[in-house]
Amino acid sequence: MPRMTGGQALVKSLYMEGIRVIFGIPGVQTYEVMDALYDEPGIRFITTRHEQAAAYMADGFSRAGGGIGTALVVPGPGLLNASAAIGTAYSCSSPILVVSGQIPRDAIGAGIGHLHEVDDQLEAVKPVTKWASRVLQAAEIPSTVHEAFRHLKTGIPRPVEIEIPPDTLREEAEIDLVEAEEYKAEPASSDDVSAVVDILLASESPAVLASGGAVGGVASTALLDLAEHLQAPVFTTREGKGAISDRHYLSSGGHGFRTEAIVNRIAEFDVILALGARLGRLDLRMAKQIVHIDMDRSEEGLSPKGTITIGGDIGRTLVEIVRLMVDKTPPRPNRREELEPTRDERFEPSLHVEPQGGYVRAIRAAVPDDGFIVEGVTQIGYASHMLYPVYEPGTYFTSSYFGNLGYVYPIALGAKVAQPDRAVVGISGDGGFLYNSQELATAVKYGINAVVIVFNDNAYGNVMRDQKLQFNGRMIASDLHNPDFVKLAQAYGAVGVRADGPEQLESALREGLESPVPTLIEVPLEMMPEPY
Known about the structure:
Elements: E1 3-5, H1 6-16, E2 21-24, H2 31-38, E3 44-47, H3 51-63, E4 69-73, H4 77-91, E5 96-101, H5 121-125, E6 131-134, H6 141-153, E7 160-164, H7 166-170, E8 172-174, H8 190-202, E9 206-210, H9 217-230, E10 234-237, E11 251-255, H10 260-265, E12 271-275, E13 290-294, E14 308-311, H11 314-328, H12 336-346, H13 356-366, E15 372-375, H14 379-387, E16 396-397, H15 408-418, E17 424-429, H16 430-433, H17 439-446, E18 451-456, H18 461-470, H19 485-492, E19 495-498, H20 502-514, E20 519-524
Parallel strand pairs: 2-3, 2-4, 4-5, 5-7, 6-7, 9-10, 9-12, 10-11, 12-13, 13-14, 15-16, 15-17, 17-18, 18-20, 19-20
Antiparallel strand pairs: 1-8
């Protein structure tokens, strides 16, 4: 076995597991990792300006198909700074690896005030991770990294964290490196698949509710095959947008922010096939029968009474359902003529609240079908959930139930690193953008030419509108003093432009997507009406 430091063992193990990009900030407890990275040209290190942004970029990288997004942070404030981003990845079922430093081994738990010390750091991060572990011996680093990747690549994809003290990273030992392993996703049991097929074929009016687990790869393909065979409309959660193309007549809209009309439509169907959705937070009480396919059986107790839940990989399970269904029955009569008008109505401009609808249409017109959109917690972001059509799976990102400000721009940067030849656009408000506006420096330094649109109403706009309408105009703490966003972008070396109205936005966005330089587009706004 070769002899090496713990830092070298970590870097070699990450490389063997396929890691080629790490986002992070170097610090005293991770010096040995950085020194090992100096000798590993196969891994690109992207220095961010905040640990939160490092973990967000890892998330965007992972969601855009770059592989397992990885972030390196110092312990204590570094890891806690990253925790909001780790929580976002957790809520969105995004597999990211966070490697954190620690204080020296002998001082852990002593409470003597070491630099960056947090009492029981592992416990602090467990609520937003699928698995977390501390490594105290250099020789144990490869097996721990391998175990981390087993958790990342099996079951529900969620964040994992490893923390390593600096003396462990400095320590030299005989190291037994571990080869990467391929993991096969398993479908539900044949009995469960057969039972689901019988329920669906006996149904007169089935529908599908698709969440993030049904997006992309084999899952989206099999979902479309199933929906077409049954002629079943497909509804989606926010995370599930794009599970099938919004050009398809069976695409029936999103279930999310106050979309009571869609919830009420659930009562029209005798069977709802739910794919990966967190049913505990969806009001499906009017559904006659729900069949729920999910890797996470912990949701079972939160589902409406009478829900039939089966465990298994959604994509592989759908493949088996379709295979058995096709063997048993021919496709049902085509419903295009009946359903296409309903699909078209969702995107009819005259029915959209303005000005939100006009801006969403402008963005859609400028972004290629395969371009990525990061929906922010902002007025146009809310509207895009309902009004932005998605044509390819895996191209629409949200923060799911975490609903946090500040994630849009770094997520977009991470996605652009993963897919440098595809369009990436972040939809942000002025308040949210300033959480991580410093990452303009990162974008310029590394040539990450994503585009961010900052819709600027000089307020936490949703809060201000609610205070005005719900509290008789008693507005407090919701107005903001902002910089000149165009000059801010230019100060960093990015392109900064201002667009007045949807037409100018579409033009500026088209130019920004062609620019080799990161672009910020500011769109000045007045208070907007409620979009729901």
